[in-house]
Design brief:
It is built from 1 helix and 6 strands; from the N terminus they run E-E-E-H-E-E-E. By secondary structure, the chain is mainly beta. The strands form 2 sheets. It has a 4-stranded antiparallel β-sheet with strand order 3-4-5-6, with no helix packed on it.
Length: 88
Amino acid sequence: MQQFPCPFCGLRDEREFHFAGEAGKSRPDTTKEISEADWAAYLYYCTNAKGPSREIWVHTTCQEFFVMTRDTVSMEVLSTEALNEDAA
């Protein structure tokens, strides 16, 4: 079982966390007309990069969202930081 470091609670079991999305992904401007293709790309497509990746996660125990940087090849967690401190 893998352990993830919550920036608020410390090292915890991976079952307490939920993936919320890619960090830095810009939501389309909903005050303007958005094509179905652009909306689908935002909702369903991700870069799925090989190597270091910045992702938004939520720790379901404390309900805090944070940014986790992890290596998608080795699954090693490189860092975690509070979401409000990051311009994700």
